[in-house]
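Complex record, two chains
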Amino acid sequence: MNTSVTLKNLYFSFPIYDQSAKRVLFENTSAVFQHGMVHAVYGRPEAGKTTLGRIMAGLVPAFTGGTISGSVLLGKEDVLKTKGYDLLEHIGMVFQDPDEQILMPFVEDEIVFPLESLGMNRPKIHERLEEELAFWDLEELRSVNPGNLSGGEKKRVLLAVLCAINPSVWVLDETFEELDEQWRETLIQRAVASGKTIIILASKHIELFDIYVATWSVITENQIFQGSKDHVLQLLGDNWEYKKLHPSMPYISHSVYNTMELPVLSVRNLSYTYPEGNSDFTLFVDKLDLYSGKITAFYGPNGSGKSTLSKLLCGLLTPNHGEIFFPGNGEKKKHAAAGALQKTTGYLFQNPDYQIFLPSVKEELMYSLVQAGIDKDDAYRQAITCGELFGLKNPEEIPSIMSYGARKRLQAAVCYLLDRSCYIFDEADSGILLSEYIRIIDLFVKREASLILITHDLRLAEKLADTIIVFQDGRAQEGFL
Amino acid sequence: MIESSYHPGKTFVHTFDPRAKLFLLIVYTTAMFLPFQIEILAVYAAVMIILAFPAAGIRDAFSPLKVLLPLIILIIILTPPFFREGEVLITYNTWIILTDSGLIRTCVLLSRFIGITYVFFVFFRATPLNQVVLTLRWYGLPIKAALIISMTFRFIPNVTSTYHRVSDAHKLRGSFQSGMWGWSRLKGLVPVLTSVLIQTVKSIPVMSMSLEHRGFGRTIRRTSYQRLRGGRKLFTHLTFSIIIALMLIAPIFLVR
């Protein structure tokens, strides 16, 4: 069966909520993704890549609302006239956020569920289940609740589901994010070898797909443009990460390194084992020093201990052995209390919504200032200035309906106002432009804060960080690969 | 329910057939509402607490009591004043604080409350969720209803973990701290619960979308990969469970 995906005169606009303007995403745009080839669709964050994938899968506007017209053909079948569940064997999508897609209480059930929907017999389900569990190295996790897995492991579960269904069209929505380098390579090899129509929705990793991609597309100005790679990069504009990571581009205003300076936070002979559930894993850190105005990158594969060490550093976990202490304050080598660590370290979570709860940008920004005893008028002035610094121009805007990128900026602004001496950026570059990410980092570095960047992107780590801490099998050591 | 997630094990509580366990759960719950003497209800509740040890381990066996503690205290405080007949046991000036009938009613309520909580705790701690769903389907529950139950049990721990992540995030924002008590804790919970609520509400349409993308709703008949074993083991366990069920109900006829 020919399963080309053809978009003809596609129009889509989001539903209008209170205070939000009508937002048109696609306007009279057409594109063709030929059968059996690899197609890369690029776009800046919020350009509409996810919505495009979900339109192709028959899920938008059915579950989101909005206005759609034109046609989306999967082979000869008009997706806009078909229910999403009837497209199961035709098109499969891996969502950008795995938590949005995982449904079942066990990894094994997650893979089995769509196969049961297909009416597949038991031996066939068993065969596919075992095959995919082995391929994606999930055999030991088969009886684990997927909700308790790391981001990369969750992505592997969803990829196992996709491969088990083996639909004619694979839509990979930023699927390479959160996977470590080994699994990124495995995924692209598997996708290419499948002979299916592969549509990669991405904002990064051009170098990974370079040799496999048949067509390049870019979503910009409500249109999908198809053309050569160079043409696509040109349309993406000057701030595109491909250019930003060019070796000749200096962009972080690092402070001068002072060897006599005492670290703001130090770790010595630390070990940590989870009390239950993850008991096989132990983290060891012999020595780590974090300096004011310096950037430290935590780099390593999924489940290697990056997030665990981060939680220890900000006092959310307590080490079994060893110390985390503040030598800069003249403190002796004695483990700092959780409360003290929580007041020293700020954390930018991957999901900005964890820290946002108030009805306006202004109130979000003023909250911590007022809590700290600052006069309301003064707090308001500081909040407005900080909002402008982070590109939040409307102080009355409702955070929960702002775009993802704007919520990320708001989260960064909230953390900035906390004025901590150390900040952890947990893969904070996802969903925002690299140029924007770099600008935010720069703002924190200028404040002389010590920054920790958790990343899977070695190139980014090498470019931005003063020190790279490499995580491997629970050991964290300073070094370069 | 939040506390009642599966705890892997190989004890007799774990290996007992889930269909027999569900049958006993229903009979036990019914028996706890029968007009038994307090001694019998207390024994039933105690048996269930004892069964929690193999089902959940020593550390977790008392976790339901910790969760129930505020309600237990309320029952102890509020029940006796409503039962003033019988022999007076405690007075304060002219106030009757406790009578023997008030004491018995309080103990009956506590036994029922603790017993029923523990029977569900033991069942869900010792039975994997997919077996619970298969058992419900074996008893004739439609697939959609079984799936709703399965999703609910997946969703509750999900909300719990969201709560933990959000409260961690707010601890680092300074709006919520562990060790807060009373009014300041309640005040600190507002931002956490608001964020959790926003997250939860946002996840509902996305979850429906994911279900449809996994083929839920197709007219084609679903197959079932997981199966519960039948045969001699099932017969033995069901027979055994019927005997236990009769023993549970028997006192209504034997003890007057």
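Note: The longest helix of chain B spans residues 182-213.
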